[in-house]
Amino acid sequence: MSASSPATGPASDAAENWRGVATEDTDELSTGAGVFLRDRSRRLLGELLAPHHRALWGLLATITVQNIAWLAGPFLIGVGIDVAVPALIDGNVRPLVWITVAMLGAAAVDTVLRFVFLTWSGRVGQIMLLTLRRRVFTHVQRLPLSFHERYTSGKTISRLTSDVEALAELLDEGLDNLVTALFSVLTIGIVLVALDPPLGLVALLGFPALFWVARWFQRNSTAAYRRTRETIAALIVQFTETFGGIRAVQAFRREPRNDELYAALNEDNRKAHDRAFWLIAVFVPAVTLIGNLVTVAVLGYGALRVMDGALAVGTLVSFLLYLRRFFDPLQDVAMFYNSYQSATAALEKLSGVLEERPLVAEPADPTPLPEPRGELVFDAVRFGYTGSVVLPHLDLRIPAGETVALVGATGAGKSTLARLAARFYDPTGGAVRLDGVPLDRLTDADLRRAVVMVTQESFLFSGSVADNISFGRPGAGRDQIEAAARAIGAHEFITALPEGYDTDVSKRGGRLSAGQRQLVSFARAFLADPALLILDEATSSLDVPSERLVQRALQTLLADRTAVIIAHRLSTVEIADRVLVMEAGRIVEDGSPADLVAGTGRFADLHRAWADSLV
Q1: 2 or 69, which is more confident
Q2: C-alpha of 199 from chain center
Q3: Is 25 exposed, middle or buried (0-12, 13-18, 19+ CB in 10 A)?
Q4: How does pLDDT run across 275-311, given as a tens digit for each residue?
Q5: pTM score > 0.85 for this model?
Q6: 29-354, which class in CATH?
Q7: CB-neighbour burial class of residue 91 (10 A; exposed 0-12, middle 13-18, buried 19+)
């Protein structure tokens, strides 16, 4: 139970956050979903192991021979006691020499093969982790905006960090202990029965108790370790969102409240780990106790048989040494199960992300678009979000080279139209075509070369101003970068920066003003030179002088390309050839800016209201 579930306030808010992280990823708390998740994580593990079949067989052979060498020690000690010691008393040192050489040889083989196994298995494990990280990163980039809107950045970071590290811990440490322990338990169990069947039967009496303890630990630890993964994910989400929005946190003096929320989540995490450690603290001593009781029973029964002459002393010593080696690895199995449960929970999360399907996947048989012109057509397009229809039936044709402005109230469908044109989503009905080709028939490379979208966010990456502009065309030279900046009027402010185009914009472009960031994003888009340029409220963060500067640049730069401009500032609409007024997902007015202003429709009303606001 969550530490804060019975209460209200910060702790209960944190508990709700924790439950949100748990339930958004999976429905693993139900039995049916749990089986599905286990199958899914096993399938992912199988895919990661598939390319390494030869290496795995080689590792199996290596660990088999290594364990045989390791198991030779107790047997040779018993032989030494029963054979070499009596021979030595008679003055014959040859058996002792041979046993010594054999033990040294077995130790050398054990050491060398142990080294080979650890280095080889470590290399295979790191290759698997490399493959997994690449696969998750590549896959998440291709998932639709709807996934990223639902799946917070903190949860994504948790998948690529703590969850991958849990699997790394299993591969780096736990797997070696497991393989060694399993071989030890199986081979020693056979050796014990073969060495002396009566003593072997006594040793086997401890197995029912061991089985019961192991089953108890398995049942309880599965849920415990899954919860540790969920609570650490909740911590990462809270941490990431707090510092991602640090300006808002400090502006609203949110620090004390965030401290309380983080403390409550931290307490949930501590209690989850306390539960896991408590299970280990019960399991390990229980195995040790069973092992000691079995050892006492074997020693007592073996001693009686030695007194009766039915059992050699050396055989009893060998048996006891093997018995100790039999129970010690069971504790390693417990430690492995610790890592295994964490890794299993992590694999469930990772497999869940990898099984998210891209809604706008590339076509298997694409249609080439060598020279895009920019004609955009919406043919009976229908689209909505989670059951709500935004565009019920949209027919629209924008000829190549035309600049179209979309205006309308919030929620009218303007941004949805833009997202469909950029193929962030596919329509649920009808088709969106570029130069007569449906967008879902184009490769990503052709689509991104032909269509560029500039949003209100104007996101900048860490690096220099030049790096951010060249994002629009990787490999562009400094002359091309500066030419794009000059075209949209950004050159002057860039050259005024401390290091000009080489100035580091800092995290998210924090060193630049909102208007400067938007100008850089414009330069990036213009450098890409698309056939279709979409501006989704891209001038909303500009001040009046910057906006006028951008409008003058747009009049030149958009002359020979198709452009769709979404703006609440009607001053931006003046550069358009054509204005579309949208309402409830439909186009209710269509005409030139001058014609619509002169009329009596919605755009005329909007224009008058805007003009009045300037008085």
Answers
A1: 69
A2: 52
A3: buried
A4: 888 888 888 888 888 888 888 888 888 888 888 888 8
A5: no
A6: mainly alpha
A7: exposed
Task: Record the tokens describing residue 283, joined without a space.
Answer: 């399991």
pLDDT higher than 90, residue 378:
yes
Residue 542 CA, distance from chain mean position: 36
DSSP state of 601: S
Contacts of 142 (CB under 8 A, 6+ apart): 358, 361
Sheet of 586-591, strand order: 451-454, 532-536, 562-566, 403-408, 578-583, 586-591
Lookup: tokens for 184: 């030890």
The pLDDT tens digits for 62-77 are 888 888 888 888 888 8
Q: From CA 275, how far away is CA 285, in angstroms rounded?
A: 16
Give how far the C-alpha of residue 412 lies from the chain's centroid of Cα atoms, to the nearest Å.
Answer: 35
- The amino acid at 210: L
CATH 3.40.50.300 domain position(s) in the chain: 376-613
Question: What is the mean pLDDT of the segment spanning 236-256?
Answer: 77
Q: What is the mean pLDDT of residues 313-333?
A: 78
pLDDT score for 13: 41
The answer to whether 529 and 562 have CB atoms below 8 angstroms apart is no
Helices (H), ranges, 26-143: 31-49, 53-79, 85-89, 94-142
Q: How close are the terminal C-alpha atoms of the chain, in Å?
A: 61
Closest Cα to residue 18, out of 221, 222, 271? 271
Q: Is the dihedral of CA 116, 119, 122, 127 positive or negative?
A: negative
- Judge contact between 469 and 485, C-beta under 8 A: yes
User: Residue 160 contacts by C-beta under 8 Å, 6 or more apart in sequence?
Assistant: 133, 136, 137
Give exposure, 213-242, as e/b (b: 16+ Cβ within 10 Å): bbeebeebbbbbbbbbbbbbbbbbbbbbbb
Cα distance between residue 26 and residue 354, in whole Å: 13
Tokens of residue 64, six digits: 């088999």
Helix or strand run (H / E) with residue 453 = strand 451-454
CA 99 to each of CA 76, 81, 96, 381, 589: distance values in angstroms, whole numbers, following the listed order: 6, 10, 5, 85, 99
Residue that has been written with the tokens 């941004």 in this structure: 415
Fold assignment, 376-613: Rossmann fold (3.40.50)
Nearest residue to 223 via CA among 29, 54, 72, 412: 29
Query: How far is C-alpha 188 from the geometric centre of its chain's CA atoms?
Result: 41
Q: Which residues pair with 534 in a beta bridge?
A: 453, 564
Distance (Å, rounded) from C-alpha 414 to C-alpha 175? 54
Q: Residue for token digits 């769709």?
A: 564
Residues of the chain with CATH 1.20.1560.10: 29-354
Residue type at 446 in one-letter notation: D
Show the tokens assigned to 183.
């071989």
